[in-house]
Every structure is written in structure tokens, then in C-alpha cells.
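Hi R.,

As promised on Friday, here is the backbone we talked about, encoded as C-alpha cells. Could you run it through your design pipeline when you get a chance and send me back a sequence?
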């Protein structure tokens, strides 16, 4: 009788295995989209490297630029052979791809140095300029967008929108020239060109950030206006929270997803826009280096600089995509 009332004990050895399997499944579910995005990023970089490799060779023969006009055909042939440009194009392409995983971009035809060393001298200046422009963008665009959303339809809102539209429609190089005329030539307050001090960074950073300020401020205003009309904002106001605390604590985070996306894209745009800005202010960065490399038909250097820009876009977009789950639990749970 007592044996028939005895209940079977659960097999405790299966529980840890089941838990481990569940954890493994969850980890796999998290890693799978990350691996897919990494694979897509590598494919984009491969396509970019391939396209720029073949397109840059349509610009002409670098030997014609490197030798004087009266050079003989034999001299051109010797130089072309020494540079490896007389080999089959497919062999040059395969050698180029073989060096990419090792960050071996070849030797610059103009500087006669490894491209990696030439880039190492110029990339920090461009990163500094892009970082300065991003700081200016956030310091101006975020308060402007929040203020315009909180004062929707009023004179403050209209003034912010007018200034933003003016900045968005103004060419950055023209803004740079205007800033040089006012602050460098007229007021003698800031240097017109050069690199090395904080004063040299001010005008290029402002010039490079003008368009980004307009884009981020407009998007933040629109996103905040949508969020401020939602139920949880009305609930927060009914609890007695002031308008500023309501926007900062409850509205800004919910409106941040599209803003984060645009800020990420603008980081890549800042690096791309640095080409013109560095030309205006004689800033010794990768943008100015790209223009010089194109003029000199420096194939390896052009390929490397374009790939650096593309890699920056890809990496920033990947980080922005992965950050969605941290900002919005709904995105994290849907993956």
C-alpha cells in the first residue's frame, strides 16, 4: 500500500542539461543576427574594394603623370614594369585582395611608401576633425530640436526651423569661406588654416557640422512631437512632472531611435564631407590625401582611402543597428 502511494522523484540530472540547452539556444539566437550583419558588412567591403579597384584604373595611366612629357616609350615601359602595372589585371586584383586581410594596401606610387604608413599619418587628423564636428552637432542640434518641439508652432519653433533650413541648404565649403572671411580675415580671432591647436580645429569643425546640425535637429523635433502626444507623456504630466523633466525622462529616450540612426549615418557623412572641408582649411587629413591621390593617379592610395571611408560607414551602421536593442526592448525582444 505504501509502495503504491510513493511518488516518482524527478530526474534532477536532466534539468541542468535542459537549462544549458535553453541558454545555448538563447545565445545562438543573439549571435545569429550579429553574425549575419558581420557577413553582410564584409560582403559590402569586398564589393567596394572590387569596384574601386577597377574604376580607379579608368582614370588613366599613372606612368604618364610620374614621368616628364618628353619621356621615351622605353622609360615608360621600365617604370611600368617596376611598378607592376604591366602584369595582367586579374593578377593585380588578386594580389590586392590577398593583402587586405593583412592591411597591406601596397606601396604608394607618389610617396613611395607603404600605403598603411601614409594613412597612419593622416587618419588621426580626420578623426579629430570628425569628432570635433560631431561634438558641435550634438551640442547645437539636441537643444535646438528639444526647444523647437517644446515650443511647437511658436516664434521659437519657427526661428529654429528657419535657421536649420538655412544651414541645410547652404554648401559647407561656402560656409567655410565665409567663416574664414569673418573670424580669420576680419576679426583675426582664429587661424584660417593649419593644424595642431584647438584654435585650428574650431572653424573646420563648425563648417563640417552645419549640415549635420540641420538634419539631426529637424529629425529630433519631428520625433519628439510624435512622442509628446502619446499616452505615457500625458500620464507623466498628470503626475505633476514639469515639461522639461517629462521630455528629458520620458520623451527623449522614446524619440532617440531615429535620431541615433541619423547620428550614426552622419558620422560617416562627416568623414566623407571632410574632403571639401580639409581642402578649404588646408587640413592634413585623409580627405585632402584622397584628392591628391586622385590627381596623381596613385592607384593603391585611392583604393585604400575609399576603403577606409567605406569601412567607417559599415562599422558605424553596424554599431547603430546593434544599439537598437539597448535603446528599445521591443527591438531586442523581436530578434
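Update: got your reply. Pasting your designed sequence below so it's all in one thread:
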Amino acid at each position: 500500500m505504501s509502495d503504491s502511494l510513493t511518488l516518482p522523484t524527478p530526474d534532477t540530472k536532466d534539468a541542468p542539461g535542459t537549462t544549458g540547452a535553453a541558454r545555448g539556444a538563447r545565445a545562438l539566437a543573439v549571435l545569429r543576427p550579429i553574425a549575419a550583419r558581420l557577413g553582410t558588412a564584409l560582403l559590402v567591403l569586398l564589393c567596394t574594394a572590387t569596384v574601386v579597384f577597377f574604376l580607379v584604373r579608368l582614370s588613366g595611366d599613372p606612368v604618364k603623370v610620374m614621368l616628364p612629357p618628353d619621356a621615351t616609350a622605353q622609360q615608360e615601359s621600365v617604370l611600368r614594369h617596376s611598378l607592376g602595372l604591366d602584369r595582367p589585371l586579374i593578377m593585380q586584383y588578386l594580389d590586392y585582395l590577398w593583402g587586405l586581410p593583412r592591411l597591406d594596401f601596397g606601396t604608394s606610387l607618389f610617396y613611395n611608401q607603404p600605403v598603411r604608413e601614409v594613412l597612419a599619418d593622416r587618419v588621426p587628423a580626420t578623426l579629430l576633425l570628425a569628432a570635433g564636428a560631431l561634438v558641435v552637432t550634438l551640442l547645437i542640434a539636441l537643444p535646438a530640436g528639444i526647444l523647437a518641439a517644446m515650443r511647437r508652432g511658436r516664434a521659437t519653433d519657427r526661428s529654429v526651423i528657419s535657421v536649420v533650413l538655412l544651414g541645410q541648404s547652404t554648401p559647407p565649403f561656402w560656409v567655410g569661406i565665409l567663416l574664414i572671411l569673418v573670424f580669420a580675415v576680419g576679426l583675426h580671432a582664429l587661424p584660417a588654416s593649419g593644424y595642431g591647436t584647438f584654435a585650428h580645429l574650431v572653424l573646420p569643425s563648425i563648417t563640417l557640422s552645419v549640415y549635420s546640425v540641420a538634419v539631426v535637429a529637424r529629425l529630433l523635433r519631428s520625433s519628439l512631437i510624435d512622442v509628446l502626444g502619446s499616452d505615457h507623456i500625458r500620464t507623466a504630466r498628470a503626475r505633476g512632472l514639469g515639461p522639461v523633466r517629462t521630455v528629458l525622462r520620458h520623451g527623449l529616450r522614446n524619440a532617440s531611435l531615429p535620431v541615433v540612426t541619423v547620428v550614426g549615418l552622419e558620422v560617416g557623412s562627416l568623414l566623407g564631407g571632410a574632403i571639401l572641408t580639409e581642402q578649404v582649411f588646408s587640413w592634413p587629413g585623409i580627405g585632402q590625401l584622397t584628392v591628391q591621390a586622385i590627381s596623381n593617379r596613385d592607384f593603391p592610395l585611392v583604393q585604400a582611402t575609399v576603403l577606409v571611408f567605406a569601412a567607417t560607414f559599415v562599422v558605424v551602421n553596424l554599431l547603430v543597428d546593434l544599439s537598437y536593442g539597448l535603446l528599445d526592448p521591443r527591438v531586442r525582444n523581436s530578434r
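One thing I noticed while checking it: The two ends are 53 Å apart (CA to CA).

Thanks again,
M.
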